[in-house]
Specification:
By secondary structure, this protein is an alpha+beta fold. It has helices at residues 22-35, 43-51, 67-80, 102-119, 185-202, 221-224, and strands spanning 55-59, 89-93, 139-141, 144-151, 168-173. 32% of the residues lie in helices and 11% in strands. Strands 1-2-5-4-3 form a 5-stranded mixed sheet, sandwiched between helices. A hairpin with a 2-residue loop joins β3 and β4 (144-151). It is globular, with a radius of gyration of 17 Å. The termini are far apart.
Length: 242
């Protein structure tokens, strides 16, 4: 049963009209249909969804206030789970009246991360640089470093990033990648398998900004919201450390 006033939900909560709005139920079903398709490239996501290991939250277009608390509650899950369960968090944004462009959703995504940073009451994780132009930077909230990524209905070619009518923000704590690091044997094999499946699903080569965390030539922020094409992302990161 969800905690009173909690905005962190399980998959059972996401179909309960007493707990979430109608649009959330609808968009969660779209999301579930995509990620449980047996051809879906990310088998980690598919497996976690089926096992009930994912968590969810939502924000309306004009009110994001519950999100910081939901993410703090999500982080607390890890401090209680032994052995480590690779939980992921997906945040659904109330759909626009009419579908927007990739640029619109990308800006919205970065605005949400900036909002979280402005509301953050804890210090930035000491092991992670504050400058996104550093190859070891990762978004940090409440002392927890994340891999964050955006999914949106405007993706027409990179269909793995289209999870329904909502902008959907994924948050994966970096600690769930223990044993799957970019240079580890398990990490390399897992990544290659997933990327092969992504290329098949999207019918496009891997995006040029997709690499592994820790690669000195790679900028992690560029992977957070890739283009619907094969052009490298240019310019500065929209995120600013306060």
């Amino acid at each position: 049963m969800a905690v009173t006033n909690s905005y962190l939900f399980t998959k059972e909560d996401m179909v309960n009209p007493d707990l979430v709005p109608e649009w959330v139920i609808r968009e969660y079903k779209n999301f579930r249909d995509v990620v449980t398709n047996r051809e879906f490239p990310c088998y980690f996501g598919m497996s976690a969804e089926k096992k009930g290991e994912l968590r969810y939250s939502y924000i309306s277009r004009d009110n994001w206030e519950q999100l910081p608390g939901a993410i703090e509650e999500f982080i607390a899950l890890f401090d209680d789970s032994k052995p480590l369960i690779r939980h992921g968090l997906f945040v659904f944004v109330e759909p626009e009246m009419e579908e927007k462009t990739i640029e619109y959703y990308r800006e919205y995504f970065w605005n949400v991360l900036q909002f979280l940073h402005e509301k953050d009451t804890q210090p930035w994780h000491a092991d992670y640089p504050k400058d996104p132009d550093h190859h070891l930077w990762a978004f940090s909230f409440a002392g927890e470093p994340f891999f964050a990524f955006g999914n949106a209905p405007a993706y027409k070619q990179r269909k793995t990033r289209d999870l329904g009518n909502s902008l959907v923000l994924g948050f994966q704590p970096r600690r769930i990648f223990e044993g799957l690091e970019g240079t580890s044997k398990g990490g390399i094999m897992s990544r290659e398998k997933v990327r092969e499946r992504v290329e098949k699903w999207d019918n496009l080569p891997k995006h040029p900004n997709v690499s592994h965390y820790g690669d000195p030539d790679h900028r992690e922020w560029k992977m957070y919201f890739i283009g619907d094409d094969s052009k490298p992302i240019e310019g500065k990161c929209p995120f600013h450390h306060k």
